[in-house]
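Repro:
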Amino acid sequence: MERENAVAGPRRAPLSADEFAAIGDGHIAYVKPILSQELNALFPQAPELEPDLELFALLGADGSPIVVADTREALAESAREHELVTVSLH
């Protein structure tokens, strides 16, 4: 018999990694602060930059890289152009 939570209803099994990654797919993007030396791991085609520059990466709900910028404002504008809602990763 399935146990019920008085507030939330029946308990659900935890999400799989694929189910979790699909939440918000195409609608939600994550803002992740990165340093320039991390850039090529996310964007292999990006040019080499001097180390320790603070950048911001916009990642899809599944973690796929979308765009990189040097300011949060520029990244937010790019997200709006792609009709994405942004959330921050820490």
